[in-house]
Prior knowledge:
This protein is an alpha+beta fold. The protein is built from nine helices and 18 strands. A hairpin with a 6-residue loop joins strand 9 and strand 10 (97-100).
Amino acid sequence: MKYAILTKSTAKKLVSCISSRxxxxxxxxxxxxxxEKVVLCEDFALLRGENISKKALExxxxxxxxxxxxxxxxxxxxxxxxxxxxxxxxxTSEWPTLTLSSVxxxxxxxxxxxxxxxxxxxxxxxIKGKVLDTCCGLGYTAIGEANAPEVEEVIVFEIDxxxxxxxxxxPYSEELFTNKKIKLNIENVFEGIKKLPNNYxxxxxxxxxxxxxxxxxxxxxxxxxxxxxxKKGGVLYHYCPNPGKTKGKELHPGIIxxxxxxxxxxxxxxxxxxxxxxxxx
Length: 281
């Protein structure tokens, strides 16, 4: 049985229904993917076999996801001494995002993670053949690529096992671990890409974290490897996070310069998706 996972909004509805002495109600226990009936008693709700008290439901916070386990609501977050980072699954208006020490790994303020993933995937459409997805995260782009009918395989890298630990609790990441087209490598793509064959990938999705987390993924050396493993006629999308945009320090001009230097052509920045599209002609 999968754990029930819920947010403050679901908890508030359950509290309201318990307070009005309802015997059951329908809510989502998978962050909006589906709804199901929940049995209610005088001071608790039965969430997929777990008795969760009204008091526990009342203590939930807005920016946190919770799983029902051992009769408690446990927040989906933890601190790693190995990386010195705090990992958290944070709810949004649609799909949840991952935060590393409060830094979000997806856009969600004006454009939600789901919408932004759709924008990025559109940039490499039609998605076909073999796809390299350099930075897995919660697996949203890898899942979208694997679900394209003409895709044969998706090779994806994730350096941090803590990120995958969070993904295991995210209903929208489930296919990352079950879709047979997806080949997940727990390794730094900066090193892993060197083992991949020449002219292999039809599409490349490069959605790195900000430079402060992975500066090596913005190096000319890495861009040479992206060019090497891509087939002629292949398309690259490179997301360009812009934490310095408000200070007049946009990232994409330098990225375009380096991509062009290593051999990519038709390099264009697309403001809507906040990334660079490039081709190997």
